[in-house]
Write a structure and sequence with these properties.
CATH architecture of the largest domain: Alpha Horseshoe
Shape: elongated
CATH topology of the largest domain: Serine Threonine Protein Phosphatase 5, Tetratricopeptide repeat
Helix content: over 70%
CATH class of the largest domain: Mainly Alpha
Radius of gyration: 24 Å
Order of helices and strands: HHHHHHHHHHHHHHHHH
Number of strands: 0
Length: about 350
């Protein structure tokens, strides 16, 4: 059996196990790694084998996989096929981003990858991520669109829409997410994209669809079909954006999750609009107690923070919203599908076609 056929067999079986079981098949990955190591013993300049070894090293949490692939590229690049070399440069960039968020170091490798070949979507998508993190959203959008032109896959569609949203082109992003959500049931596999769509609905004034998705979150949660602690808070924030303050307050109060600052501000405002100032005050005291407990539980060698300053910030937020009635205004947030907008999203990657 040829190397290419054997390699594709291993990858296909690994991907199938990952999709069916939501976990990496370590024994099979180790067997694949042994096969690859045997291949480079026979063919020391087989760059594609080195590339696959680096990927397996990363998946198996081995050290120095980036250095391993960089050395392999330096050794083999004079004899390598440009497409294979581009794939390796792209993966080095991907490794820097996916594992260590080292965007500056990733950028030159990704640019070299697209200089060598325009056949792969990954380096375009990764460059889009680089510029997204630099908040250069126009440039991020250009590379996301280029990735989509190479491969019209789910991740590339979502990432392009995310970039459009961050350039404030909400209608275009809305249309893309609307098509992705069309005729899709609400469950743990569709939750993240539906939540982003609902947020875009709020941005373009489509309150009806946003409310419907918030209702779906509540229904699924009550039926036990969603398992994240923060699901109720997500629904609460959507209700808040739609002006359904009583529903939002009830949803926030059902969440056991320690909510973000934005969600906390939304809850305070909902309490204010419902006239339940005691609930808002109770939440403030709870937030302060959590800060104090977190500080007490720190190890001796951990840096201590200015607790009084953090408590003052909490109180200032409370006063601004509850006492003064100031409605919190938050910019729309979007992100790449592999850094899902939803906290603890269990399986957003499962959309990949």
């Amino acid at each position: 059996m040829s190397f290419e056929v054997e390699m594709k067999k291993y990858i296909r079986l690994l991907n199938r196990h990952y999709t069916e079981n939501f976990e990496f098949d370590r024994p099979y990955a180790e067997a694949y790694l042994r096969f690859l190591l045997e291949e480079i013993q026979k063919h020391p300049y087989h760059l594609r084998a080195y590339n696959q070894i680096a990927i397996m090293m990363m998946e198996l949490s081995c050290e120095d996989y980036i250095l391993f692939l960089k050395k392999a590229v330096d050794r083999c690049k004079e004899k390598a096929n440009p497409d294979v070399l581009a794939m390796c440069y792209s993966n080095i960039g991907y490794f820097y981003i996916a594992q260590e968020d080292r965007y500056e170091e990733a950028e030159p490798y990704l640019l070299e990858a697209i200089r060598l070949s325009d056949r792969f979507d990954q380096p375009f998508a990764m460059l889009s991520k680089v510029y997204f993190e630099k908040q250069d959203y126009e440039k991020a959008c250009d590379f996301a669109q280029a990735a989509l032109e190479v491969q019209n896959g789910y991740n590339n569609i979502c990432n392009y829409a995310a970039c459009l949203a961050m350039t404030k082109d909400y209608p275009a992003a809305y249309e893309i997410y609307q098509s992705l959500c069309e005729n899709q049931p609400f469950n743990s596999q569709t939750e993240c994209v539906k939540f982003v769509f609902a947020s875009l609905c709020c941005a373009v004034g489509d309150v009806q669809n946003a409310m419907q998705i918030a209702d779906e979150i509540m229904q699924c949660k009550q039926l036990g079909n969603l398992d994240r602690d923060v699901d109720y808070a997500d629904a609460g924030y959507l209700y808040f954006q739609c002006g359904a303050y009583e529903k939002a307050k009830l949803a926030f109060e059902r969440s056991a999750f320690s909510v973000s600052d934005e969600y906390l501000e939304a809850y305070y405002y909902c309490c204010c609009m419902c006239g339940d100032f005691n609930a808002a005050e109770t939440k403030l005291f709870s937030e302060i107690a959590m800060l104090e407990e977190a500080e007490r539980e720190k190890e001796e060698d951990e840096p201590k923070e200015d607790l009084s300053k953090k408590i003052d910030t909490k109180k200032e937020t409370f006063d601004r919203i509850v006492k003064n009635g100031e409605k919190p205004v938050h910019d729309f947030k979007s992100t790449f599908i592999w850094n899902c907008l939803l906290i603890e999203c269990p399986r957003h990657w499962n959309f990949e076609n």
